Amino acid sequence: MADHDATPEEIIPPPAGAAEPVPPQATDHEESDVSITGLGEFLIAMAVGLVVVGGLVYWQYRRFEWIARANDPTPIPRADERRPPPEPHLQVDEVADMATLRAKQEAILQSIAWVNRNEKLVRIPIDRALAIVAEKGIRRWPAVATDGPSAKDDAKGQPPATGADADQKPPPPSD
């Protein structure tokens, strides 16, 4: 038997009650299933819905913004804004204030006045004080203690030996 040369329709018979095959020109498209007016109404409704939802979202955003402004504290001023400091203004014109201060200090330095009457301590002008020191010298100036070795100290930072200490030999270096 030559079954391998036969088509499937010849080998398997069609089921009972099957419809007849449809010719290809009859399957182009359906002309009565889609309503153009229905599709237009759907697109218009979609556009209206989009506008309504967009308006609601915009309104809600503005409402949230208004609530946030009502509840938030005042913002901190920007760093680049130059605002005057709060009252009292202590120094309005720095240059004039400094000139006034220097003039007062110069007047104090050039005047003669009592510093302490009980101790007979007087303030005199600097030029006059320098002239008096140059003329008379300084009587009995107290010695000032130094923290570091003086120029008279030896290389080890010890003062030179005097009196009974000069006869003693220094201890040998410890290695």
Give a written overview of the molecule:
The chain is mainly α. Among the domains are: 39-69; 96-140, no CATH class. It is built from 4 helices and 2 strands; from the N terminus they run αααββα. The chain has helices at 8-11, 36-71, 94-109, 126-136, and strands at 113-116, 121-123. It starts with 7 loop residues before the first helix and ends in a 39-residue tail after the last helix. The mean pLDDT is 78.
Shape: elongated
Helix/strand/pairing category: mainly alpha
Strand content: under 5%
Q: Strand order across the biggest sheet?
A: 1-2
**What is the CA–CA distance across the termini?**
124 Å
Spatial extent as radius of gyration: 56 Å
Count of runs of 4 or more consecutive helical residues = 4
Total strands: the figure is 2
- The parts where pLDDT drops under 50 for at least 5 residues are none
**Averaging pLDDT over every residue, what do you get?**
78
Give helix and strand order, one letter per element, not per position.
HHHEEH
Helix content: 25-40%
- Main sheet characteristics: 2 strands, antiparallel
Summarize the entry for a quick read.
With 175 residues, the chain is mainly α. It has helices at 8-11, 36-71, 94-109, 126-136; strands at 113-116, 121-123. A hairpin with a 4-residue loop joins strand 1 and strand 2.
